[in-house]
Amino acid sequence: MGTVWVVMHDDGRKLDAEDERLMTGLGKFASTAHQPPVSIDELRFQIAEREKAETALRELTNALETRVRVRTEELEQEIAERKRAEEELRRSKACLAEAQRRFEGILEIAEDAIISVDSNQRIVLFNQGAERVFGYVADDVLGQPLDILLPQRFAPVHRGHIEAFAKAPEVSSLMGQRRDVFGCRKDGSEFPAEASISKLDLGGELVFTVILRDITNRKHAEERIRQDERELRQIVEAIPALILVLAPDGRALYANERVLEYTGLTLEAFQADDFRELVFHPSDVQRLRDERQEALARSATFELEQRARRKDGQYRWFIIRYEPLLDDQGHVIRWYATGTDIDDRKQAEERVREENLALREEIDKTSMFEKIVGASPVLRAVLRRVAKVAPTESTALITGETGTGKELIARAIHKRSPRGSRAFVTINCAAVPPALIASELFGHEKGAFTGAVERRLGRFELAEGGTLFLDEIGELPAATQIALLRVLQEREFERVGGRHTIRADVRVIAAANRDLQAAIAAGAFRSDLFYRLNVFPIEMPPLRDRQDDIPLLVEYFTDRYARKAGKKIRGVSKRTLDLLQAYPWPGNIRELQNVIERSVIVCETETLSVDESWLARQALPRTGLALSKTPVTEEKAIIEAALAETKGRVSGPSGAAARLGLPPSTLESKIRSLKINKHSFKAV
User: Fold this and answer.
1) Rounded to whole angstroms, how far apart are CA atoms 617 and 400?
2) pTM above the 0.85 mark?
3) What is the DSSP letter of 280?
4) Does the pLDDT at position 469 exceed 90?
5) Who contacts 228 (Cβ-Cβ below 8 Å, separation ≥6)?
6) What pLDDT digit, counting tens, does each position of 262-299 carry?
7) CATH architecture type of domain 110-214
8) Is there a contact between 324 and 299 (Cβ–Cβ < 8 Å)?
9) 3-state secondary structure of 425
10) Fold for domain 346-541?
11) Positions of E strands within 252-366
12) What crossing angle do the helices spanning 406-415 and 377-389 adopt, rounded to 10°?
């Protein structure tokens, strides 16, 4: 009963159905205990009932003890958690107080004005920054409407903005996004500002905080920058150069009129991100992208060379100089890129480079014509004619058999002329396929024909200001003869595939080893071109007409090849000289050079001797010696006969070219020009 009483008087414990059942049992047990036993059976029954009641009571007692113990443990845990929560709350309050103290300190030392207003737009916070900006002390404005800090003309707008912001879901926003923000100081003066606003719900009460910064100095600086930019833009327009104004990251902001006029583009096109792809050569854009970005990051003056597209589609070389404009802190605020046309200089450099390549090729060639060797009367007569024509600008036509030294005479004319310091460029017209000869002479543009992957300068451009030597001029195709005639008459030409006329300041010297008069009669060569070339004719004598020069030539070649082979050869046997002077030399000086070189190689003594069999095998029919001077109809018959004997073979020791005493390339050219089918002789 005591336990029941404790349970009943426990505020945290309520009686439930189980408690009521136990109370009912206990009541019955108590009632029975006060009634006398009627009989032994009844007594036994009562004892049994009592034992049941005691068992139930014990169970109840155990259950109540268990529940009390569990509850006690729960209470102890709740008390411990409450103490921990109270400790956390205490620490949180301390931290909050410290944070509030620090926040108030930050508010006071903040340079920006920080102002808080309640839902009625009355000022509840006014920091020292606000006092400095507006000229008020906090006590003057606390509780006052926000309107006192705003120009009267803007006050309704700002009130409406705050009211709309209170209903918006955002908790912060920038002010002045649609129009400028202004503040009003205590003395009534206005100032430009930038501001942001945020809101905080404190128990249903909205508090608005405005952070405001006076940007008067910045506005003045921006206005000065705009004024400076206007002045700089005027200066940029006055400078006679192509000028781009760029942002620090390289974006184009402005292009002067000369840039727009040169490119034919609008200012909007330059302000697009891809303006470089529109203006500069694709190869240069890719090549200079990384280099330009690295240079921009260094904030120092730099230069780049690249090609800019003119409005007519032609690219010209420019040197672009980038000059930075720095602020007081040394930061780049603008780049000024100035373009100077250097295309003429680049073309000259390219021309010099090509000339050097051409000259290097000529120097590298093994040639017997290092100097003129000989003192025969016929050679002296030729040299006298060279001395007369060299100082002039007249075109010269040198004729003679192959190997007589026509190119040497052409070089002598060039070196003695006013153009001697400039390039001497050569081309063998018979060695170039007819389809490519125009490109070789006049150059071609990129894409002019299959395989023209880039623009190439022709021999006329390489020889600009100098001399162009056209060897074997009689092998030129008819179409190219017309183009060459135009150059000689008008001093201008066009590249293959090009549309622009190029002026030519070139002296032309031509050479031929065939009878051009006969070619004119046969319709294979233009008479007007012949007369343009034949202003000053020079005929080179064959070596068989210069027997007095053979000893000098033998001595010269012997010394040359002996030094190259590291041998000491002191002289030439008389029998060898007699043999060489008696030989007709169908291959002229070139053949003599080959014989001497071979003899030096096999020579084992200090006296040079020549194997007579070498000359006997190389003796040619008289028809071959005079082939270049025969009429075209007879020339065709001689060539066909030689092809028949060699079964259509042109090159090699047993070929038709060797039989006729002609270079294989020359004979191939003659076969094409005479329309001879060399393959038809293979079956003969």
Assistant:
1) 24
2) no
3) B
4) yes
5) none
6) 889 888 888 888 888 888 998 888 888 888 888 888 88
7) 2-Layer Sandwich (3.30)
8) yes
9) strand
10) Rossmann fold (3.40.50)
11) 252-255, 302-309, 315-326, 332-341
12) 40
